[in-house]
Every structure is written in structure tokens, then in C-alpha cells.
Task: structure prediction
Amino acid sequence: MSKQLKVYCKNIEEYINFEGGETVGEIYSQIASRLDFVPFCCRVNNKTEDLNFQLFAPKVVEFLHPSNESARRVYIHSLCMLLYRALYELYPGERLVIEHSLSRGYYCRLLGDVKPSEEMAERLKEKMRELLAKNLPFERKERLRNDVIDIFKRQNLDDKARLLKTVHELYEVFYRLDGVNDSYYGPLVPSTGYLEVFDLQLHEDGMLLLGPDPSNLSQAQQPLPQPKMFHAFQEHLQFNKIIGVDNVGELNEAVEHRRTADLINVAEALHDKKIASIADEIAARYHEGGARIVLVAGPSSSGKTTTTKRLAIYLMTNLLVPRMISLDNYFVDRTRTPRDESGDYDYESLYALDLEAFNKDLNDLLDGKEVSLPTYNFETGTRMYKGDKIKLGDNIVLLIEGIHGLNPQLTASIEEKMKYRVYVSALTTLSIDDHNWIPTTDNRLLRRIIRDYKYRGTSAIETIRRWPSVRRGEEKWIFPFQENADSTFNSSLIFELGVIKDYAMNVLRGVPHDAPEYSEAYRLMKFLSFFSPIGERIIPPTSLLREFLGGSSFHY
Result:
């Protein structure tokens, strides 16, 4: 007689009996009436798995609500494979490249003879709905690496074959949908019938794949025009093509063939050139009677601080004198600080700043007056004055770094021509392969994990735990104003994930398996496993990456 096993379900806080070999989906069917949602995936011992994951031993299982970030990721990846399957049938020989997230969707291009059109988008959507109606399974397969490489080569997925050659694993996981193979960075939904909500629209010279709206999961996202962000992405994608590194497989080959020094030097030179160009534009506007105030904004770990310091240097080469003002010193007293939904002080809110005092000081400076600058005491939660004064003379530019720099309300009383806004973000243009992009949020989260651990004594578990709150603040206070920027600086470096791999892996391994944050730590470690490590020795001390790794020539 077989010994009965038990799985603990966190959703209902009960044990469920099973014999062994059942899928997590079969466990769900036993309790479906007790949950108010249909899951796309689950966590098994704090690892995200698909619902076809089989159980052979006692486990802790949690079914994830469709609004959960991990569940959303599973849905989007599955939607990408559905699009690829439709394209494979309707337009054989066309190469689908899903480059990055943009305008609330995922920007796709076709590399082949077919030019995207309204008719094409409608045909693809019709085929996707047809496959959806058949409720076809996403079949999870696991084979020897060389066998999977051969499978991908036969299907002309050369980018995936190249990546697998450089990863050196024995076995690889891939998925099959109606006879067509593909691979994704993480699990997929059980079948096409789960993918009821989506849209596909023409966008620029490609298409935009749109998933469910997080605020209303029953309808597809509506695209948000972001022409400046699109241009910033495309500029770096063109740079990737010139240096011959579009994806992680090509980056790993560059490491193998000892070409990383050239790669690093060219990427750093591109940063220098872009910052110099921004400084030149600021100087030109200054001499036309404007751009007295330069506002540098961006999300967490985008590299705002180093960008601001390097921009100051290039402004000086334009014979301008940069003077810094810290927004932090304009916090209202703690008793007046707004609170977030959990009751904590919300220092990321625009209204945590004394906007009236800030605007008065800026206007007084522009009028030629001398201004006493405040200092905020974080211990007492009060603003004080210690005698620091500032006055704008000839060729002096105010340089102000802070997350609210693009928000019109921050400097509402300042004449527009007097302001120049710079948006900084790590717009990662390197892809894992044609169908797996690297989210900019993952790049920034890894930077922050390293920085918090190295300089703030904060563990990876704490950084991961706080990240959703940071992201909510960005969605509210930063991202809506991206297109207000006069210039966008892409702070990502094509080689950086290979450099930070070992740093991040060492910190992530410290997240205990029984912590809820282990799921995210495990996902990030799996993601980093695709990269061949790159030594940091030849990274210059002025590199933006030094802000997170250490060894910078700048003082922070």
C-alpha cells in the first residue's frame, strides 16, 4: 500500500492529501470552489511553477492571483508564444523579435520580407483567437541540451541555439504549442484557453502586443504614446547592431573570444558622447537666455547620481559653472509628511516637499537674489538653516537631481524656458533571445540589490520585499512624466549584467528558501545564469556602473 502524501496549500491554510504524481492543477481542481480566482500559475516551495508541475513529495503550494506580478509574467510570456505560433503558420520564414516593453505593451518587429500592416495585425489576431478557442496545451519538454539546440536550429531559432551553446547546461526546458517549439524565461499557462484578453496593434514600424490592464484584468491595455522613449530604445538597438551584440548569446561569445575590453570601451564612449551632447544642448539654450535650471530625474537605481556628476563635468567644459541643490533639503517637517496606504511616511510623494518654499527660492535666484539654503535633519524630521547661501552669477547653472524633476508641479512657478529636464533610466536593449527581452526593472532591481547590500547594510530579502512599493511610487510619481524630458539618457551598459552577475548571485544566495522573497531571488538567479561572467578590472572609475559596484572616482 502506498503511503499517502500531503501538500500544504497556503491559500486555504490546510493540508491536502495526494497519492504522488498529480499535477498542481489537479490539486487546484479539488479546492477550486474555495478560491475566488482561476490561477495562471503557482508557487511550489517558493518557486514559480506552471500548473502542470507534478508532485512526488510533500510541498508548500500557493496559487497566484492573476494580478500577481509573477502570474502576469507567465501570462505575457504565454501570449508571446501564442503570437509566435500564429506568425509561424501565417507568415512562414518571418523572424519575430520582441524587443522591449513600451507604451504599456511589448514592441515586436518582423525581420523578413513582410511589412506589418493593419491587415496583417488583424490576421494574426484572428489566428491567435482561433488557437485560443481550441484550448491547445503548452507542453513542457525537457531534453538534452544538444537535442534542444538541434530542435531550435531546424526551426530557424538560431538566437536560442546560440544562447544554449554558451550556457553549458546538460538539460534544457522548452515548450511546444501545436507542433511549434519555443522557450521562455519562466513557466507558461497550461493552455491557450487561458489567454482570453489581449490585443495586437501597429506601432511605429512594428507591432505592439498588449496584455490585460492591471486595473481591469478583463480588458486589454490601451497603449500610451511614448515617442521619446521609443527613440531612446531604437538609438541603442542600432548601436547593438553596429557592435554585433544583440542578445546574451552574442555577448557570451564576445566573452569567450576575449572581446569584452573593446565592448566596454565602446559602450562607455557612447555614454560619454550622449552626456556631452546633452551638456552642449544645455549650454546652447543657456546662451539663448534659457536653461538656468537643469532637472535630472529617473526611477530607483537608474544611475541619476553619476549621470548628474558627469553632466556637471561636461557643463564645465562648456564654460558653465554647475551648482547643486538637493531636493531632500526641501522636505516638509515630518509632522506634515503624507503617509502611504500602509500608514508609513511617504517620502516619495511630491507633497513630501515644500513646493512653495522651493519655488520661491528658485525664483529669487533667477532674479539675482542671494538665497539661504535649508538642510533637512532626518533624525529630528525638521528643516533648518545653517548659514549656507547661494547666488547665481554669470555662467552659473543650477543642477537639481530628484525623482520629481519631470513633474510640472515641482517647478510650477518657473518659466518653462528656464528649465531643462533630463530623464535617466536603464532602458535595457540587450535581449536574452528574440522572444525574451530583459525588463528594465530587473536591471535596476539587480543594481539596487548590490548597492543596498554593499553600502546600506540591507539584505537582498529586504530590498526585494520593498521593491513593489518602490515600483508603485515610480508608477505614480515618475513614469507618467517621462515624455516631459528634453533629453533621455539611457544609463544601461550592454555588458553590465555579465559584470554584476557574481556580485548579485552572492547576495541573492543569502535569501532563505522559506522566505516569500525566495521566489523572486530564485528567478533572478536563473536569469543571471544565462550570462558568462565579465571581470570588472577594466571598467573605468567614471563608469556609471561604479555607483553600484564601488571603485568610483566620484564621491557619493
Q: What stands out?
A: The chain has a mean pLDDT of 95. Residues 94 and 113 are 7 Å apart (CA to CA).
